[in-house]
Structures are given as structure tokens and as C-alpha cells.
Amino acid sequence: MLFYVCVTPYFGHGPYAQSLGVRELCPKYWWTNLLYINNFYPVSGAYMCIGWVWYLANDMQFYVISPIILIPLFFIPWLGLSLIAVLCAASMSVTGILVAVYDFPAASLQFQTQPETHASFSDVIYNKPYCRIPPYLVGMLLGYIFYKYPPKSVKLNWVVALLGWILACGIGYACVYSVYGNYNGEPWPKAGNVVYEMLCRFAWGVFVAWVVFACYYGYGGWVNSFLGHPAWAPLGRLTYSAYLLHPIILTIFIAHQGSAFYLSLALTVSEKDSYFFGWEI
């Protein structure tokens, strides 16, 4: 944060440098990042200091409330499982209500704004923990299963395992590709948008959970061999730092531009990615 706020503004001297908002926003709202409330205040994500770290606030908020679930899950399993189910249902219900009230299309772009209400999808749903928590709860449930049932203690018939993979892959495919028509001339009715937004995050969590479950208990096959290959380890250690650093690198790149430029594949590969890898190395 100190580097981004205090140093980054002096890196660029092009016409875009003064429009990046670092000087104006961060001195006013830096404290919200330290308190992990920057996904609630300022109300509009357009005024966030270091806007892309909104998810750190989500993660911290989930971490703070996790003992409310984990302690009952350890001592009174039925109560902990009930809390997970209730919180999932409540989150999906709130998300569905918000989508219906603000009439957002399914899989809205992060900063998409409804012209009638001027409400941003990011501010209303995208970065709010009460809409984001279902995958986290699915992960907690999976961790509990791992705790209760060590490796090789779960035996599945090969037909059941195969059906699990087919169902999980179908769910993952539906989460990603079912909304294609919604942005290509075949918009969904409001009911379809509501149902998708209610279920998509939970469903994606279930898909990922099955992949981890199957690989952990020996039903991953070549998927486990591929994802568990040691070659991924160095890149895996960089992903979190890449998430935190790459917008700073792009900000500096944009601030140095002396004239207008147009997005292209060549620009993306030769400039943005080379900046990223250069800084990471």
C-alpha cells in the first residue's frame, strides 16, 4: 500500500498519470484497507484505494466469522452442518433478491451499471461477502470431511466416481458457458438471471470441491497427476503476489504512455505480460 500510494504517482509523467486516482483516493480511504472494510466503505467501488484488494476484505471477514461455524462443527456436528446450510441458503436468497430488485443480467460485468437505478453490480453484489460466502462454506464442509475421513477411508464404486465427475464437470461447464446467449442476442428473462446468480457461486464451489475430493481420495486419475505435478509448484507460489502486484505494474505502464493506444493481442503479450514477468523475476 505504501509503495502504491507514495511511490507510484511519481513513476509516470504521461497525460494519463493524473487521471489514475491514486493521489486523490488513497489519502482519504487508506484506513478502510487496514480495517478490511473496503468492500463496504466507501460505498462505491470507484472510490476504493487499491480497488482490487476488495477480496482481501472478504477473506478476512470470512475468517473472523469462521469460529462461529467451526466450533459447533467440531463439538456438535449437526449444529455446525445446519449453520453451513442456513448461511448458504441465506446468502443465495439475498443474492437472488438483489438481482431481482436491481434487474441485473446473469454474470454481469463487474462494473456494469443499470441505467435506471445507476446501481453498480460490483457495489451491490460482486464484492459483498454475504453474496460471496457460499464457496467458502463449501470449502469448510470439505475440510470437515477431510478431518473426519482420512485418505483411503472413503471407498466409491467406479460408477459412482464416474457419475460424480460427469455431474461436477456439467455443473462447472454450466456456470461458465450457460450465459453465452445472454450476451449474444438471446437475453434471459429476469427469473433466469435470478436463478443463475443465486446458484452460480455455490455451484462453482461444488465443482471445485469435487475435484479436490476426488483427487484426495484417489479418484482423480490423470487429473490428479496433472494438477499435482511438481512443475506447478513455483507458479502456484507466485499467484497470490501476482494478484496483488499486477495492477500496480499496469498502472505504471499506463501512466508512462505519451499518447492514446489501442488494446490488441500484440500489446497485451509484448507489453503487459513482459512487464509482469519482468517484475516477478
Notes on the protein architecture:
By secondary structure, the chain is mainly alpha-helical. It is built from 11 helices and no strands.
Radius of gyration: 22 Å
Shape: globular
Average residue pLDDT? 85
The count of β-strands is 0
How large is the share of residues in beta strands?
A: under 5%
User: Largest sheet, if any?
Assistant: none
Distance between the termini: 21 Å
Q: Uncertain regions: pLDDT < 50 for 5+ in a row?
A: 276-281
Query: How many helices does DSSP assign?
Result: 11
Q: Element order, helices and strands? A: HHHHHHHHHHH
Structural class: mainly alpha
Helix content: 55-70%
Summed up:
The protein is mainly alpha-helical.
Notable features of this structure?
66% helix; globular; disordered C terminus; 0% strand; single chain; mainly alpha; 281 residues
